[in-house]
Amino acid sequence: MALTGLARDTIARRLQHLQSVRDRVVIDADTHPSSPALYSDALRRRLAADPNYFHGRPISGEELLRDMDHAGVDMALCWQNPAAITYTDDPRENFAALRAANVAIAELAQRNPTRVIPAGWTDPKALGEDEAAQLVQLCVEEWGFPIVKMNPAQNRFPIDSPVVLRMVDRIVALGAVPAFHFGADTAFTPAEGLRTVALRHPEWPVIGVHMGGGGPAYVEGEPLYQAARALGLSCPNIFFVLSAKRDTHMESDLITYRLAGPPFAHNIAVASDAPYGRISWNFGGFRAMFATLRDGAAHGDPRLRANPGLFDNAAVHDFMGRNLADLVIRTDLRLLRSPAAAEHEVAAGEAHADGDQGEGDGEQDSTEGGEHLEVAGFAKVVEQHCHGAGVGADQEDCRG
Ligand SMILES: [Zn+2]
Questions:
Q1: 30 alpha carbon – ligand 1 mean position (Å)
Q2: For residue 143, how far is the Cα from the chain centroid?
Q3: Is 215 inside a domain boundary?
Q4: Alpha helices, H only, 112-217
Q5: Within a domain: 218
Q6: How many domains does the chain have?
Q7: CA distance to 34, 41, 84, 294, 362, per residue, from 49 (Å)
Q8: How many angstroms is it from 105 CA to the middle of ligand 1?
Q9: Residue 196 · residue 165 · CB < 8 Å
Q10: From ligand 1's centre to the CA of 150, what distance in Å?
């Protein structure tokens, strides 16, 4: 299988849009819209009977877009809402349910290509390894998703299980970015577990959603909050999404990573975790927090008073949208230039965009089983992107 025409068009359109807005876009990097057509009867009855919020209470794509408008958010990274689907004991039924939820995300992105960045979701535990791998392939090659997530907490499996690492290998081999719920709400995602995942493909990005938050009790969450902050500084390929985490720790994360400079200052994006959090509340809070960070001389953090200009407009914009935009841009460029994409072009008899489809600098990445994966040259693609954007070849120079 190779990228379908739909996937190629989806990726190309998204890439063009993100390249045109990266210097001003505001992105919510963690949202979970659902299709009401997929709600179970029980969920439908509960929604009709109870207007109050309950954990994970689903919102439709249209509701999400309205909330984004209210909050001044241009785009959202969207994956399915695990609270809106029901698993059974039958892995095939679970595959069908999760497939349908991913299709709903793909269709939402098709309808709103300038608002929605679609991301996939797979689950090796509920689906079984083969079906979970099949879903990864559909997410990337059929629907053109740049990111595929697993949730070790809600789906209940250790983040560094062998089967999870094999799923990471598959996502990477397809050219996409693996993402994980990474929180202190369960014991399934310790910092060492995410480190194992990150070291599996050290030149490849991996996304840790919640940066150690995710809804633990405040005191219980403290050790992972601290460990996550340190982990990212030792693994430059980890990209963190700041959502569902104490605001005080989020502020410290932002100051720490801004002080650390590139690449770390480019490895964080802010988010709401809607519908688990409100977009308006979170982005209202982020904007207010950044206003105080901009006023470094008057800030309570001594690191800021010593570096009062640390949070200039460019720094704030990085965290509010550009960091994630650039991660998706790099990924989309890689997907369009992947061996799978080249295969599709040959099959369709299309001319190559240029003569450089060989990926001659692809890395050899050994896996536990001794098998080798050909992966596209990440650094090379970054260089291409920078040239395309009319700035220097150095990755750090890419950034405003
Ligand atoms: Zn989330």
A1: 5
A2: 16
A3: yes
A4: 124-127, 129-137, 162-173, 191-200
A5: yes
A6: 1
A7: 19, 12, 16, 45, 55
A8: 14
A9: yes
A10: 11
Residue span of the structural domain in which 145 resides: 5-350
List per-residue pLDDT tens for the chain, 400 residues long.
699 999 999 999 999 999 999 999 999 999 999 999 999 999 999 999 999 999 999 999 999 999 999 999 999 999 999 999 999 999 999 999 999 999 999 999 999 999 999 999 999 999 999 999 999 999 999 999 999 999 998 788 999 999 999 999 999 999 999 999 999 988 899 999 999 999 999 999 999 999 999 988 889 999 999 999 999 999 999 999 999 999 999 999 999 999 999 999 999 999 999 999 999 999 999 999 999 999 999 999 999 999 999 999 999 999 999 999 999 999 999 999 976 555 555 554 433 333 333 333 333 333 333 222 233 322 233 333 332 222 223 333 322 3
In degrees, to the nearest 5, what angle opens at C-alpha 334 toward C-alphas 331 and 337? Answer: 155
- Residue 384 placed within a domain: no
Q: Supply the CATH number for residue 97's domain.
A: 3.20.20.140
In a domain, 379, yes or no: no
Question: Ligand 1 mean position to 168 CA, how many Å?
Answer: 19
Element (H, E) at 120: strand 120-121
Residues with CB under 5 A from ligand 1 (ion): 30, 273
- Tokens representing residue 50 in the block: 């109870």
Secondary structure (3-state) at 135: helix
Q: Which of 359, 353, 360 is nearest to 338 (CA)?
A: 359
- For residue 279, the CA-to-ligand 1 centroid distance in Å is 12
Burial status of residue 21 (CB atoms within 10 A of its CB: 0-12, 13-18, 19 or more): middle
Q: How far is the CA of 108 from the centre of ligand 1 (A)?
A: 17
How far does the centroid of ligand 1 lie from the alpha carbon of residue 155, in Å? 13
